[in-house]
Structures are given as structure tokens and as C-alpha cells.
Amino acid sequence: MKPVSVTHTILMLIAAMMTSIGIANAASQEKIDRRTNEALSEFRSEISGADAVLSKAVGVLVFPRITKGGFGIGGEYGEGALRIGGKSVAYYSNAAASAGLQIGLQRRRQMLVFLDQTALDKFRASDGWEIGVDASVTVITVGAGGSIDTKQLNQPIVAFVFDSKGLMYNLSLEGTKISRIHDD
Questions:
Q1: Which of 2, 59, 149, 180 is 20 to 30 Å from the Cα of 25, by its Cα?
Q2: Where are the beta strands (DSSP E) in the chain?
Q3: Could you read off the pLDDT of 21-67 as tens digits, one per residue?
Q4: Rounded CA separation 182/93 (Å)
Q5: How far apart are CA 128 and CA 180, in angstroms?
Q6: pLDDT, tens digit, 9 for 90 and up, residues 69-118
Q7: Where are the beta strands (DSSP E) in 87-176?
Q8: Spans of all domains in the chain
Q9: CB-CB contact of 139 with 113 (8 Å)
Q10: Closest Cα partner for 43 from 29, 15, 17, 64?
């Protein structure tokens, strides 16, 4: 068993605090659904091949607004909906903490596309799920106005991170903690 560093402990405490604050102030299901619909619409209209990806999915976890901020030590938080068959079935928060050279504030949209029923079932059965620990997630990068090569979709879970200018490059999602906030 690997020893836990002080930095790692501090980062996990920050993530836990952000998660607990977020749960206490969680947006309504209606608000999350409205934002989720907007994010999916943007994804479909901006990226060629998006419909093909979504049609292969057994589930899609959409975080329409993740806010990340930092000054040396940073954190991020967002809320989203898990869609199965086009319907929201549960609502989740997304929280992470980081340390290093960082300053500023950023917003983005993020989608986890489950392409394997076993991976989706494992996610839904978990009580708090951490990317990189509970599952490996492949981040697909495509530029704005670009297209997705569906032949690349050979992993159980793929992530798309985007904003109004297109998908973002070179983003690591490891350490992101996803927790249930509402059930439909």
C-alpha cells in the first residue's frame, strides 16, 4: 500500500469540502436538466460524429457547467445528469482539487459516455466514484468544428470536455470524484 502524502491529503480535504458545499446547495433537477439539454444540443451541433457517439452509448453523464478556480491550490465543482435512453435517471456532482502553478477561473462542459453496460452498472452501484481509481476514462480530443472518429471508441468509458469554443486539449480528469446528489 502506497503512503499518502500531505499534499494528497490536503487536496482530498478540499475536494470533500467542495462536494459537501455543493450537495447542500445542489441545483434543482429541472435546472440541471435544462442545462444538460443545452450542453447536449451544443455537442451535437458543434462536433461532427456526435450523434454516432451518443447512439452507441448505454448511458451519458453530462456535466453542463463545471467551474474551476485556483490560486496555487485549486478546485472545481459541477452538477449533472445521467441520461439513459434519453431520460435523466440520477443526478451527480463532480469535484476535484489540484495544486501547482494555476491562477484564474474557467468553466467547461464535460460528458462521460458509457459504451459498456458493465462499466455503467459499476458506476451506478458505487457510492462515490473516482476517475483513475474506480475506472479509467479515455479523453477524446477533437477541435472545434472537427469530427469524432467512432473507430477510436474502443474503451468502456470516454470523456468529452468542451466549451463554447469547442473541445479542450490535454486535460486530465484523474482524481475527479463523482457523487450522487439526486435520484429521479
A1: 59
A2: 59-84, 87-114, 129-130, 138-139, 157-163, 166-167, 177-183
A3: 444 456 789 999 999 999 999 889 888 888 988 999 999 999 999 88
A4: 9
A5: 7
A6: 766 677 788 999 999 999 999 999 988 776 665 566 677 888 999 999 99
A7: 87-114, 129-130, 138-139, 157-163, 166-167
A8: 6-183
A9: no
A10: 64
